[in-house]
Each structure stands twice: as structure tokens, then as C-alpha cells.
């Protein structure tokens, strides 16, 4: 899984040369460290971002960070 995320991040960075790259990542996702290593910066904590995607009884984290890689 981690290798797939690294490859995906590399592809995104290659195809978006000269453009900012933005994404949301769950506040509890350890991939946050990987994105930071690639230079992404957290700009905002979005509360309840995943509410519309998760069942009401889910214990998954509902918050996300909005990240940006400035190019």
C-alpha cells in the first residue's frame, strides 16, 4: 500500500509540473508524513470532511487536512 502511494505521488508530481497540487488526506492517515516529505504543506483542517462518505455509526476519523504542494 505504501509503495502504491509513493508511485501515485510521483506520477502526480510529474504530470502537474508548474501547477499547484492539492489534496485532502484523513487527519488520522499516516500517509500525511509521506506527503510532507514530498513538500506538501497543510493549509487547513477541514472538520467533518468525510461525513458524507462514512456511515453514521463509523468510528473512522471524519476530519481531513487540505494539503498543497506549491509549484
Give an overview in words.
With 71 residues, the chain is an alpha+beta fold. It has one domain (2-69): Aminopeptidase. 30% of the residues lie in helices and 25% in strands. The chain is built from two helices and three strands. It has helices at 2-15, 31-37; strands at 21-26, 41-46, 64-69. The protein has a three-stranded antiparallel beta sheet, covered by helices on one side. The chain is elongated. The relative contact order is 0.27. The mean pLDDT is 86.
List keywords for this structure.
alpha+beta, Aminopeptidase, 25% strand, 71 residues, 2 helices, 3-stranded antiparallel sheet, 3 strands
In short:
With 71 residues, this protein is of the alpha+beta class.
Q: What Rg is obtained from the alpha carbons, in whole angstroms?
A: 13 Å
> What is the residue-averaged pLDDT?
86
In total, how many domains does the architecture comprise?
A: 1
Q: Give the percentage of residues in beta strands.
A: 25-35%
The CATH superfamily name is Gcn5-related N-acetyltransferase (GNAT)
Structural class given helices, strands, pairing? alpha+beta
**Count of individual beta strands:** 3
Helix % is: 25-40%
Shape: elongated
Give the SSE order as H and E letters: HEHEE
Q: Which second-level CATH architecture applies?
A: 3-Layer(aba) Sandwich
Largest sheet: 3 strands, antiparallel
Which fold does the CATH topology refer to? Aminopeptidase
- State the CATH class: Alpha Beta
Q: Regions with pLDDT < 50 over 5+ consecutive residues?
A: none
Number of helices: 2
Strand order of the largest sheet: 1-3-2
Could you tell me how far the N terminus lies from the C terminus, measured between alpha carbons in angstroms? 26 Å
